[in-house]
Amino acid sequence: MNILVINCGSSSLKYQLIDMDRKEVLAKGLAERIGIEGGRVKYEATGKDEIVIEEMLADHKAALKIVLDSLKHEEYGAVKSLDEIDAVGHRVVHGGEAFAESVIIDEKVMQAINDNVEIAPLHNPPNIIGIEACKEIMGDVPMVAVFDTAFHQSIPELNYIYALPYEYYENYKVRRYGFHGTSHQYITERAAEMLGKSLNEVNLITCHLGNGSSISAVKGGKCFDTSMGFTPLEGLAMGTRSGDLDPAIIPFIMDKEKLSTEEMSNVLNKKSGVLGVSGVSSDFRDLEEAAEKGNHRAQLALDIFENRVRKYIGAYLTEMDHCDGIIFTAGVGENSITTRERVVDGLKSLGVEIDKEKNNMRGKEAVVSTDASSIPVLVIPTNEELKIAMETAKLV
């Protein structure tokens, strides 16, 4: 069975074609700058050179058409015909309370995704556009929605209800939703396998650390708590997002700087985080390089990020009677040797110890803690595309 995985952003479309029988990627790529000048589609079939098609991409449908034409291209394609694509799995950011698992897309599902646009205005609209473009071009090929929020729907009320007037939840569904759920679920399942435990008995702390970062507490294989909230803004300090802060700061800054609601939201989402503190970059590699050269604010930004990670790990350890593993994943978690080391070094009082020799690697599955560590520390590269394909194959 061949599954096409689609992940639509506002001006981009990432994709992979995966052979689920062999769990192999047949082709992958990215369409970017959709609807603006300089559009291009990157396409690479496994074992062949990357192809870059530079063309004005009027909309997501135009981008998808080029992707599908590339997949069946006589010279560099991955399949002979689109008939070889058995289903499409779509990443959908926000499913609200409507979905606790992946679903086959029908009219009711589309309506539910539309209903959540109000609380995910930056993410759900491009997801909808991608689904509609696929339907128009691919006809009756089965399509599945895999929600970033679904894994977190097992969180109990005490962790998803905010201490606000309860009618805000009843009337507007203001609650903790959590994000990066597909990633947290994938690494939870892989960690259980690596630790030799059944999924329903494993307790973990999963750390998805990248430009966007979140941490989850997993009890019995299900999410019990997570750091992102009503939106992906809550929790850790991230690349450009503020994470947790005193809510009173927002009206105070708005008054001092004469900012509108939209302008303040832009500050919190796009000008804060490690970029705001450092004034250097939102890329952690740039920060590490600047810190090594003595840039105080770059080092401060890294210190703040790592301290927040430790705080959440410590807090989540109190929510479970034992922990079978602390997992690092995503761009920073998988690749930053120093970040993992500094985070775990701050957990020594809990008996957690990192093995510097084992930790001296990037992007591979590994146990990086010492044999004496009270809790195993694992690195597991996330694979959201494979997880989406697995969910799609299971349903169709």
TrEMBL record:
What SUPFAM superfamilies does the database record attribute to this sequence? Actin-like ATPase domain (SSF53067)
Q: In which pathway does it act?
A: Metabolic intermediate biosynthesis; acetyl-CoA biosynthesis; acetyl-CoA from acetate: step 1/2
Locate the residues binding ATP.
14, 208-212, 283-285, 331-335
**EC number, UniProt record:** 2.7.2.1
User: What InterPro entries is this protein classified in?
Assistant: Ac/propionate_kinase, Aliphatic_acid_kin_short-chain, Aliphatic_acid_kinase_CS, ATPase_NBD
Cross-referenced PROSITE patterns, in alphabetical order? Answer: ACETATE_KINASE_1, ACETATE_KINASE_2
Q: Which cofactor does it need?
A: Mg(2+); Mn(2+)
Q: Which reaction does it catalyse?
A: acetate + ATP = acetyl phosphate + ADP
Its localization reads: Cytoplasm
The UniProt annotation places Mg(2+) binding at 7, 384
* Cofactor binding notes: Mg(2+). Can also accept Mn(2+).
Q: Where does substrate bind?
A: 91
Write out the GO MF terms. Answer: acetate kinase activity; ATP binding; magnesium ion binding
A biological process (GO) of this protein is: acetyl-CoA biosynthetic process
Identify the Pfam families for this entry. Acetate_kinase
Q: Which residues participate directly in catalysis? A: 148
* Entry keyword set: ATP-binding, Cytoplasm, Kinase, Magnesium, Metal-binding, Nucleotide-binding, Transferase
Q: Site annotated as Transition state stabilizer: where?
A: 180, 241
Instruction: Cite the PANTHER family for this sequence.
Output: ACETATE KINASE, ACETATE KINASE-RELATED
Q: What does this protein do?
A: Catalyzes the formation of acetyl phosphate from acetate and ATP. Can also catalyze the reverse reaction.
Q: Which family does it belong to?
A: Belongs to the acetokinase family.
Q: Which HAMAP family match?
A: Acetate_kinase
The name of this protein is Acetate kinase
